[in-house]
Amino acid sequence: MDRMRLSFHDATLLHNGCPGVIGAAAVFTGEEPDLREVRARVAERWTALRRMSHQLDTSLATGTGERRTPRRHHLHWVVRGPFEPEAHVLAAPGKLDDLWADVVGRPLPDGAPPWRLYVVPGGPDGGFALALVAQHALLDGRSLETLLRLLMDDAAPARTASSTARPRVRLGAVTRELKALATRGQALPTPSPRRTSASVAVRTLPAPTIRAARRHPVDTRGATLNELLVGAVAGGLRAHFGPPRHWPRTRPVFTAVPSDLRARDDQDALGNGSTAVQVALPLDHDDPVARLRVCQTSLRAVPARSGVHAAALLPMAETVHRVAPWLTARMAGSASEPTFVATVTTAMKWRDASSAFHGNGLQHVVGLPPLHRPGSASFHLMQSHTACTLTVVCHLLPDSAQQLADAVVDEFEALARMP
Question: Which residues contact 282 (CB under 8 A, 6 or more apart)?
Fold first, then answer.
């Protein structure tokens, strides 16, 4: 039995005090496939991917089920054999919205590699979905996209990983990023944590709406998908909670913007290969284009800032994790507080316009971001060739996800209507 130490990335996602379940679903036209066909495709395409057979070693743990807690911080991944398609590929009992609401608030059970693939029946117009859910400690969002792509008809094999040299960064850049990570903001306005609960909402945005919204600001290159999402989230929060002068504190509200650190020839590597950069949301501006312009300026610095993480901060953290893993758990708990990460904004693109499963064409892809602590919300925008889907996960009042999703969609549509 192989044993592998958890990386710093994996350990922080395991010890951050959150359920840690993420997901991605590919929605297809056509008739729902037989479960045996899906299991056969999964066995064919995923068995050789060693990460899919990783299982967290809980032999040194106390309690049972969801209450199991590690006795020590030197946890390991183990591989006891290949995963079993019959146990991991299942038929969903309900629709995709029901599945997302069911899995987001509790970890996957122990005893098997922490992922599941569900065959989900479609809506009134037919169709079906293949929905992959996993513990974030095992896989990140880019990994979920890679795995779903590998299930498509005529999919190219996964590209092998390769090592890349770390770029050199100046000490001043490292100091500035450390200071940014330690800057405390404020959580989203929320009542007592005892009154909060998880909620999930999914909205579809037509591709023409996104294209029209991305033309702004008109005297620039236009907005990227990431900039557009962060600006729309700022507008949605302002519409839902009111201007910042009505909020209980005057500190900034930070969003975490994930940045993939994989090299170009390493895009199919599974695991956790991303970092996140804190960006203050422009809530003080009441004009959507003004908010978008501020977001463009802020996000322009994200590649360089994530490069500092890759070159200096993460290698240092990995060294500390090997020497003092208990400190990793403490840092993970503090860093996940909503005063540091009030929201998470993730924008992704599904680039293959001809994707199909057993001849059934892909309609769109729906993400499921993780649930964070009370006073937080996560926003995930996935663009395909036909539409964009926005998924909102909140840990606020009941139904907050639905209300925030509507507010963010209103922001996109307002930008699209502007001349």
Answer: 231, 234, 290, 291, 294, 295, 298
